[in-house]
Amino acid sequence: MNFIDVTKVQRLSKYIPSSPTCTPHPNIAFIKVHKCGSSTTQAIFMRYGFEHDLVVALPREVISPWIGCGSVIRPQHAMKLPPGTKWNIFTHHTIYDKTNFERFMPKNTRFVAILRHPMSRIKSAFNYFHLEKNLPGMAARGRLLELPIQTYLKNPAYWDAVFVKPDKCIPDECVKNCMAKDLGLQQDIDNNQRAVTKFIKGIERDFTLVMIMEYFDHSLVMLKRRLCWTLRDILYNSRQYKSKNYNYKSSNSTIITKEMEDNYRLSSAVDHALYAYFNQSLWSKIQEEGSEDFLGEVRHFQTILVSVWRFCAVRNQTARLRMKASPWNDEFVVDRRLCSNLRKQRWQWDLDIRDKLDQQFYQKASGKKDQVNGLW
């Protein structure tokens, strides 16, 4: 067998388990916050569920991105499973409501979410969803003189008031406190500091980890430690993630001014408070883990990602990549199948997991198995 060896390990080559009693945690509900790197994170959870033969929640409608309607999940919203079967992994769009998950998942389910700096998130949302279509009069007012995001940020309070909500159970389009709304915020509490604090403390109480997109690799290493997963478990398609570009194509050199930033900070005060709190919380957790060791693991993880990225970039790869043991991981092998799995998107995982659950519970294949997985 042809092996490619990677020996760039910054510390001891002999793996020393840090917690011999640590047991991998299989029951996770990931709240997929819009435009926060959540699709990349979702793929990690779906691959983990598939590779460990866990029950992954799927929508009743094949490859739908949502399960439930608003903050309500009912049996008819999800793929039919045998009576009494609980989900191990939930990772589709829904609006967070803990009581939903208490009906469908084990009591020891751990909750995970991801946030992004509110300004970065709203820029991405305008770019991806073309939010000007939900803001009557914006196209006529802005014309070619400025970008829609600039028009919005000059007077967010005005545009928030005229925003047309999409007619969907789980609205993708949103401009104000969008992350908080995905996490269950149901009313405007911007001017009530006590209510904002109570909301944030509730999320802190319920969630094992709130990841931060700007520190994605740090967040994944923390996830690995909190769930007792392996380094292999948190691998992701770093080429696809790093290549995402939300820059606007415009000759207008003044994109976002400080005044615009201040306007949005006032308009979406809950999101800004939420992000600031959990950004600080992540770094507090890193300090508790021992920052030197933790940051060493992050650097090691990033080295591994680059090696895997380069290996999997070879089409029809027939070799195998052996990743040596380190203080943070056992030895493992990257092969063609893993490369293929790392490349899959949500809809491809939906089809593969659906087939696997059909065979597990009903001894049949759905006939919709993905035919275009492809390889790096």
Automatic annotation (TrEMBL):
<keyword id="KW-0472">Membrane</keyword>
<keyword id="KW-0812">Transmembrane</keyword>
<dbReference type="GO" id="GO:0001733">
    <property type="term" value="F:galactosylceramide sulfotransferase activity"/>
</dbReference>
<keyword id="KW-0333">Golgi apparatus</keyword>
<dbReference type="Pfam" id="PF06990">
    <property type="entry name" value="Gal-3-0_sulfotr"/>
</dbReference>
<dbReference type="GO" id="GO:0000139">
    <property type="term" value="C:Golgi membrane"/>
</dbReference>
<keyword id="KW-0325">Glycoprotein</keyword>
<dbReference type="GO" id="GO:0009247">
    <property type="term" value="P:glycolipid biosynthetic process"/>
</dbReference>
<comment type="similarity">
    <text>Belongs to the galactose-3-O-sulfotransferase family.</text>
</comment>
<dbReference type="InterPro" id="IPR009729">
    <property type="entry name" value="Gal-3-0_sulfotransfrase"/>
</dbReference>
<dbReference type="InterPro" id="IPR027417">
    <property type="entry name" value="P-loop_NTPase"/>
</dbReference>
<protein>
    <submittedName>
        <fullName>Galactose-3-O-sulfotransferase 4-like</fullName>
    </submittedName>
</protein>
<keyword id="KW-0808">Transferase</keyword>
<keyword id="KW-0735">Signal-anchor</keyword>
<keyword id="KW-1133">Transmembrane helix</keyword>
